[in-house]
Amino acid sequence: MGKPSTFDDWFASLSRVFSPYWLACIPLTALIVIVWNAAVLAQEAEPELTAENVQAALNTIWVLIAAILVIFMNAGFAMLEAGFCRQKNAVNILAKNLIVFALATLAFWAIGFSLMFNQATPFTGLGGWFLSGEPDVYGLSPFAEGGLPVPVFFLFQAAFAGTVGYHRFWGGGRADQVC
Q: Which of 49, 70, 164, 168 has the greatest count of CB atoms below 10 A from its CB?
């Protein structure tokens, strides 16, 4: 196969090798690289590297990994529950697990996190709904002082709230009765 003489010949030979979906990804990938490059160039100067900054970054990474493991634990529970029901109900069980986890996470985001971690009263929190407070509102120290960012701490707590809340109150004991 020789060199294509025109752009049309080149594009026709390329479209024989790659599907149109792959060809559509090329400009999208170029756009993403350009946008990310602009975002990187817009960054502020790096803060001074101290032991506290390194410790805060490592703590954040570890809590993120732990949150992801807990979310995968929910997927494992879903597979276990699907294995205990009849084959015709497996997709319904998996969809039910995903929907209940999403609803539990949204409810925890709206009011649960603030009720649990807001420092307004000794018994329960009153304010900071929808993660609208600063780190000290939720009893966290700022990230610059070695604390966790609020979104990372929320993700970790929401993973448990979604997983444990679902399996405690709407678990797999009713798998074949619900579907």
A: 70
Q: Are 166 and 101 in contact (CB under 8 A)?
A: yes
User: What HEC string does the chain produce?
Assistant: CCCCCCHHHHHHHHHHHCCHHHHHHHHHHHHHHHHHHHHHHCCCCCCCCCHHHHHHHHHHHHHHHHHHHHHHHHHHHHHHHHHCCCHHHHHHHHHHHHHHHHHHHHHHHHHHHHHHHCCCCCCCCCCCHHHCCCHHHHCCCCHHHCCCCHHHHHHHHHHHHHHHHHHHHCCHHHHHHHC
pLDDT of 1-52, one tens digit each? Answer: 555 567 778 777 777 787 777 778 888 888 888 888 777 766 677 767 888 8
Alpha-carbon span 158 to 177, nearest angstrom:
28
Residue with tokens 């390329």: 14
Output the pTM of the full model.
0.66
Q: In the numeric block, which tokens belong to residue 27?
A: 């400009």
- How confident is the model over 49-64, as pLDDT tens digits? 888 888 888 989 999 9
pLDDT digits over 51-103, tens only?
A: 888 888 898 999 999 999 999 988 888 888 888 888 888 888 888 888 888 88
